[in-house]
Amino acid sequence: QSDKVDVMTGIIWSNLAMAVIPGAVAQGTIYLSPNAGPSALAGAGCNENYFNIAWQNDNLHEGMGAYATTAGFKKSFILAPNYPAGKDALTGFKRFFKGEIANELYTQLGQTDYAAEIAEIRASGADSVFFFLPGGMGIAFMKQYAGAGVEIPLLGPAFSFDQNILQAVGDAALGVKNTSQWSKDLDNETNKAFVESYQAEYNRLPSLYSSQGFDTANLLISAMDAASISDKDAFRAALKAANFKSTRGDFKFGPNNHPIQDIYVREVVKEGDVYTNKLVGVALEDHGDAYAADCKM
Hints:
The protein is α/β, with parallel strands linked by helices. Helix content is about 35%, strand content about 20%. Helix 6 (about 165-170) links the parallel strand 7 (about 155) and strand 8 (about 175-180).
């Protein structure tokens, strides 16, 4: 407010997004989300000034629910942190998983000791474990899970197997399937150039968060090239047109300003000394979100 900004971006966590975005867009500020996509902002709480460039929170988890079903899993133990994105995660997985839920468990946000949860998993009779534990939570869980010797297959979204997380987890992640709207080996010229230039600049592979930030910046630039921010209607129309080259290839917004896109299945592998992901399939094609019908823009 004091700086009278026209556009905001940058929030990663959904609980922070819910604290900031509704007030900002209600005052006429345009918000471009490079990550957090809480369900409350995709349906009845949508706003013409709010655009999500990454995904609606449920999406990658819906993809894993679909994959788990086609892969033949029948009974899954599911867990996530107790905050908006965690609740969206398990809701999304359950929406597309056709098997039985052995147990649905919410952990503390920031939790690092998962001994009790792993004991429950071991005794659950599940044939798979779906977990959404981003950042340090995922590192701690994966290491403790491997150390406990539990052999029930793990499944998760890309956030639990992000490029930066994998180096800390190590061999415990090898072979695990995860879902993402992006991968470093997506075969399009923009993505190839992005990965190459990122490695040259930072001497490491980009993460999905890096790709989302890159796409968000290029969307903003495309709108600035097409319209003046002083004309909000024209500027919003330029954003909606999404006339930029995405790392994902084709990119378009749905009616609630959230992406319609493919959700891919990836597998954790080791290339030389680097743990990373490779594409192994498509979980959902041209996938939108479950809340768009409730958006009355």
